[in-house]
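Thread title: Can someone regenerate the structure for this chain?

I was given the following input by a collaborator and told the matching C-alpha cells would be attached. They weren't. Posting the sequence so someone can regenerate them.
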Amino acid sequence: MLIRAKAPLRVSFAGGGTDVPPFPEQEGGCVLSSTINRYAWGTLRPRDDAQICINSLDFGTSLSFSSRSELKVDGEMDLAKAAIMKVGSHHDQGFDLYLHSDAPPGSGLGSSSAMMVALVGLLKEFHSLPLTDHEVAELAYVIEREDLGIQGGLQDQYAAAFGGLNYMEFFGDRVIVNSLKVSDDILNELEYNLLLAHTGRVRLSSHIIEDQVDRYERGEQDSLDALRELKKLAAQMKDALLRRRLDEFGALLHEEWHHKKKMSSRISSPELDALYDAAREAGAVGGKITGAGGGGYMLLYTRFDRKHQVAEVMRANGCELHEVALEPRGLQTWRVTE
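Best answer:
Regenerated them for you:
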C-alpha cells in the first residue's frame, strides 16, 4: 500500500509581504493569490522494520535512519525530518518517503511550503490524524517558520492546503481564507492572458525577507508606505476580478510591482528591471517577480494580441516560458495498492 500526496504551488498577485510577521500582528495583512497546476509530490510506503528512508528525487539524494533515533536539524533533508519530528512516528514502524517538486526552491512559487504541506498530508494519512485544512496549513507554518526558523510569510502554506483563487487575511491570532467565486469565463480569460517566465536567476528569499523585516522594524517610511499600499492593492485587485475588469487587474499588477520594490533594495535588480521594461515595451500590461523577489519567475499579464510578442522578447532574453493554468484544489492525498 502506498500513500500519495500532492500540494499545488501558487502565484501571488498582490499583498505579498503583508503576511510576514510582525506586520500581520500590528496592522493586519492580506494577499490575493491562486494555486496553479504545478505541484509538490510525495509518496509514503510503510515498511515492516523500524527504518525511515527519505528520498529526494529532484536531487538524487537519500537519507536513512532508525525511527527510534533522535533526529537533528543539520541541513540534510530538514523539511522532511522536521515534519516527522512534529507529526510523530511509531517507534516500531518505518516508512520510505519519495519527494519531488515541479519547481525548485527559490522559484518564487512557494515550492518549499507546498512540499511541507504535502509532507504533513502524507504523515496525517499514515497516522490517521483528523486534521482540517486550516490545521494542516497552521502545522506546516509552525514546522517551517518556527521549528526550522525559515523566514517567510503565512500565505504559502494556506494556499497549498486550500487551493484555488483566494483573498487571504492575516491577523495576529487567525488567518481567514476567502475563496473567491469568480465565473469560469473570467478564470479562463485570466489564464489566457497570463504568462509565467523563469528569469534564470535564483535567489535566497530568506535574505530578502530579513531585509524587509529589518526595514519595517526600524520604521523606514518607504517600507511602511509600500506595505500599506500593497494591502490596498490586494483589495483593489480582488474587486477588479469580481467586477470582471481584467484590464484594470493587469494595470494594478504593474502598480503592485512598483510598490513592492520599495520594501527592500534586494527585491529587484538592474537586470530584472530591464527584463520587465522589455516585457512592457512588447505589450505586457503589468507584471511582477513572484514570491519574495530577487529572481525566480516573473508573472506577466498581457493582452491576447500581444502575448506572442511578449513571449518572443522574453525568450530572446533567456527566459523559459510557461502558460498558467489555475488549480482549484488544494492538498490531495490518496492510497494506491502496489
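Residues 285 and 302 are 5 Å apart (CA to CA).
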